Amino acid sequence: GCAGDDGGDTAAPGGGGGVYRLPIADPASGIDPLIESDPYALAITGLVTEPLVSLDADGDLNPRLATEWSASDDGLTWSVALREGARFNDGAPVTSADVVATFEAITADDSLSPGRAAFLGILDSIDAVDDAVVEFTLLRPFSDFPLLLTGTNTGILPAGYEPGSWLENPVGAGQFLLADYTIGKGATYVKNPDYWNAEAIALDGVELKIYGDPQAQLLAFQAGEIDRIALTSDVAATVDVDEYEIISSGYNRFDGLFHAGTTAPSDDVPAREAVAWAIDRPALIDAVYQGSADVANDTMFFPDYRPQPSGLEQREQDLDKVAELLAGRTLTFTITTSYQLFGEVLHQQLNAVPGFDVGLEVLSNEEYYADGEASPWLHAPVTASTWAKRVPSQYVSLMYASGAGWNASHFANAELEQLTTEFDATTDPAERQRLADRIVEIQWTDVPVVIPAFSKSRALQSPRVHGEFAGAIDFYTGYDFSGISVED
Q: CB under 8 Å to 286, separation ≥6 — which residues?
């Protein structure tokens, strides 16, 4: 595939200026574009750095520092052309040497970057053809490779950047300049006048405000101190939603119930099927996501991904089928999770169905995702975990394949892995459709992971804000503020 540059968006008609104010929590990790994983740390650096490409709410790729990308005939080499005239905020031009250095730092054997996992088993090397063209050489054909360039830690940094030094010298080629960062308080930004698409940035700046808990955020939103807040059940019950704009910015994650197939009753396919048919998915969406999600069918293809698989029966709550699958048995197990609300709703729904005796253990994030061979999220018999949106085949390599580091279900299927390799390698639409249909058939039939819903990013926004965001304010979209303005 390839893409051309359309020259970028233009600023919102009739105006501009103002400061957009966002609530965040205190970052739980150090602030460094290469190695941070906390979403709030990623936001602090992401307003300053710039990716090669970004995604919008429809799942389409948008040129940023890259203007074109194309694959070789054998699918093993991707050439990426860089934007002429793009500069870092210290005045240095963005060149292929900077792109090479950034991705080599992400993917090095000793890298601590969370972004490294996306390229394992896919990316072989990165080379500068000249100052304006970079070549990514792959270990195997991967038709969705440009999507990986929108992932965590992929903002381009200058060659020679020293990890850990970013707050001392907050360098980037992005929309804003960091004016101030105060631990426990927040960060303020001003517009970068030398940004390659500066004419599309109408805002004077952005402010990230740190709040200690959701209630403090809600009070700040009611007082007009911030311009956006996530639309949760507490928010919907407290404010008059009709006074604000409701923003839905595309899909951002799924929450899944993982069955460790080495432990009873999860080692039994009919038992796993019974769980999947026992869940009331629309009711779960109302209770957990306040309606801001789409029903899922226990497969890894988000609704905005192309191609969309076909041919599967949509699972819904069917108590007769559950009784048939259980055949008089009672399934006894405990759901272990750090996502309390999701766990509680699953716990309540399953225990309301005859044949289930389900417990619930809620841990802190630190306990649940702890390092080590006994980490609960990877080794407890039944777990409920959250996964950010990824390319469908990445889920196979990370959580369905034999030996995968994050395979909480301890599931492996050689045919699934082979089909996924073939899917990654082909660009033929009919063949991709055929392979996608077979991939989801295996995921649906063996059901090592129950995926009841695909969550959407949804927020309330102040009426003083004008313009439409390209998508969620996150690393996938490159924190895109083009066309947004705010009334003072």
A: none
Give the whole-angstrom CA distance, residue 47 versus residue 64: 13
Asked whether 321 and 260 are in contact (CB, 8 A), the reply is: no
Selection from 197, 201, 156 nearest residue 33 by Cα: 156
The strand pair at 382-388 and 331-337 is best described as: parallel
* For residue 307, cis peptide bond before it (omega within 30 degrees of 0): yes
The pLDDT assigned to 16 comes to 58
Average pLDDT over residues 285-313: 93
Please give the sequence-ordered ranges of beta strands (E in DSSP) within 145-234, or none if there are none: 176-182, 186-191, 205-210, 228-230
404: pLDDT confidence band, cut at 50, 70 and 90? confident
**Which pLDDT value is given to residue 365?**
85
φ, ψ of residue 19 to 5 degrees: the values are: -120, 125
Residue 369, CA distances (Å) to 19, 283, 341 in order: 36, 28, 17
Class of residue 255 by CB neighbours under 10 A (exposed 0-12, middle 13-18, buried 19+): buried
Q: Alpha-carbon distance 163 to 271, whole Å?
A: 48
Please report how many Cα atoms fall inside a 13 Å half-sphere around the Cα of residue 376, on the Cβ side. Answer: 19
- The residues with which 62 forms a beta bridge, in sequence order, are 54
Residue 52 exposure: Cα atoms within 13 Å on the Cβ side: 31
pTM of the model: 0.83
- Does the pLDDT of residue 175 top 60, yes or no? yes
Average pLDDT for residues 63-90, to the nearest whole number? 97
176-182 and 186-191 as β-strands: parallel, antiparallel, unpaired?
Answer: antiparallel
SS3 assignment, position 106: helix
**Given a cut of 80, is residue 28 above it in pLDDT?**
no
Banded pLDDT at 218 (limits 50, 70, 90): very high
What is the CB neighbour count within 10 angstroms for residue 117? 19
